[in-house]
Design a protein that fits this description.
24% of the residues lie in helices and 26% in strands. The protein has 254 residues and is of the alpha+beta class. It has a 6-stranded mixed beta sheet. Helix 4 links the parallel strand 7 and strand 8.
């Protein structure tokens, strides 16, 4: 039986709901959807979502109105864990893991290196710790990890590579190397594996009509353990959903 998995940085769950999130959720009808940047506390996320046909798991930041992840799933999880078990990295609600019979499903909102790249050193330590966390999970069963990785990995993943390279958060060599390290550790970028030449973006600035002009970045990814790739049927980007500055991405698995 085929499963549809969705990842979506909603840039505030309450804001997205006001813009029609529930209608889009019904239309997409995923078996599992992972949300990033919920920008609400656990109880606020659950209250905002209301009565929906999903089990809702949430990991919110200590700081209110900031960061946060949630996973909505039709099938009840075997287990749920918040964070990666390192206190320094677990204050901002960035990682949520749900376990199913055949795989771990991990939602992530990777830290942005921020304006002036002031958080880039922290981002580097994060990438290493998160990769190690995934590899530890993978010793038990295959891993599907999705979310906003806050990096455009290759030139094809960003509309204006030259003007942003090593100047803008999300397209520095250190961040690119961080993503390369995930791939070299045996995780497959499903979209790029299936569509090596396709130009498609998942995030657009709200400024200067960037979305209308398709001046975007591919920041959102589904990565899977190498052994799981033969169960991937498709990996797509869905730019027509407008509730956020990010659009949803979709993984179909058998």
């Amino acid at each position: 039986m085929s499963q549809k998995l969705i990842s979506w940085n909603v840039n505030g769950i309450r804001a997205a709901i006001k813009k029609g999130f529930h209608d889009s959720l019904s239309e997409l009808d995923p078996d599992i959807i992972c949300l990033q940047e919920t920008k609400a506390q656990d109880d606020q996320v659950i209250e905002a979502l209301g009565e929906i046909p999903y089990h809702v798991y949430v990991n919110s930041a200590i700081k209110k109105g900031y960061s946060g992840t949630a996973i909505l799933t039709k099938e009840k999880a075997i287990s749920v864990s918040k964070g990666i078990g390192i206190e320094e990295h677990d204050q901002e609600g960035r990682v949520l893991t749900v376990e199913f019979e055949k795989y771990y499903f991990v939602g992530v909102y990777v830290p942005n290196s921020s304006q002036g790249l002031k958080r880039l050193p922290y981002r580097e330590t994060w990438d290493v710790a998160f990769k190690n966390y995934l590899k530890n999970l993978e010793e038990k069963k295959p891993v599907i990890v999705c979310g906003d990785f806050n990096v455009a990995h290759q030139e094809i993943d960003i509309a204006r590579p030259k003007s942003n390279y090593n100047k803008t958060a999300g397209y520095t060599q250190k961040e690119i190397d961080g993503m390369t390290n995930f791939l070299e550790a045996g995780f497959i970028d499903t979209f790029r594996k299936l569509y090596p030449e396709e130009v498609a973006y998942s995030w657009w600035s709200y400024r200067a009509g960037a979305r209308e002009k398709n001046i975007g970045w591919r920041l959102d990814y589904f990565l899977v353990s190498e052994v799981f790739m033969d169960q991937v049927q498709d990996s797509t980007i869905l730019p027509d959903y407008m509730e956020s500055d990010h659009c949803p991405i979709c993984l179909q698995i058998s």
